[in-house]
Write a structure and sequence with these properties.
Elements lengths: L14 E2 L1 H10 L4 E5 L3 H6 L1 E2 L3 E2 L5 H8 L5 E5 L3 H13 L5 E4 L2 H7 L4 E2 L7
Parallel strand pairs: 1-6, 2-4, 2-5, 5-6
Antiparallel strand pairs: 3-7
Protein name: Rhodanese domain-containing protein
Pfam families: Rhodanese
InterPro entries: GlpE_sulfurtransferase, Rhodanese-like_dom, Rhodanese-like_dom_sf
């Protein structure tokens, strides 16, 4: 018998490649959150489509007040080091499913995946 299906993406890992996240998004599983911990100007200039911005200095408090501890989270910052720092902060407060997006935005853009920008208001 031949059956056609979209295979389920691999489980969340502590470090994720950009195509791991893209595969998961393409699979259509909505139970994940993408967090960008870069500064506001960088976020507004360009970010991964669907990402939300949460500043690194208040990250644990913001995430705890907005997401459940069992939520799958993909996180990225200005560098892999900042990404690791942000992920460590979330793990310290009880988040178990946190994936550091290796290469962050630059890696995402390098393979042509979709990004968003927030246009400046002229007035």
């Amino acid at each position: 018998m031949f059956s056609r299906f979209i295979p389920k993406p691999p489980p969340l890992a502590a470090k994720a490649r950009v195509y791991d996240l893209k595969t998961r998004l393409d699979w259509g599983e909505p139970a994940l959150t993408i967090i960008d911990v870069r500064d506001l100007n960088s976020f507004n200039h360009c970010h991964i489509q669907g990402a939300i911005r949460m500043p690194l200095d208040s990250l644990p408090e913001q995430v705890l007040s907005n997401l459940e501890l069992n939520r799958d989270i993909y996180i990225y910052g200005e560098s892999d080091e900042k990404t690791a720092e942000a992920a460590a902060k979330l793990r310290e407060v009880g988040f178990k499913k946190v994936a550091e997006l290796i290469g962050g935005l630059a890696g995402w853009q390098a393979v042509g995946y979709p990004v968003e920008a927030i246009s400046a208001v002229v007035g």
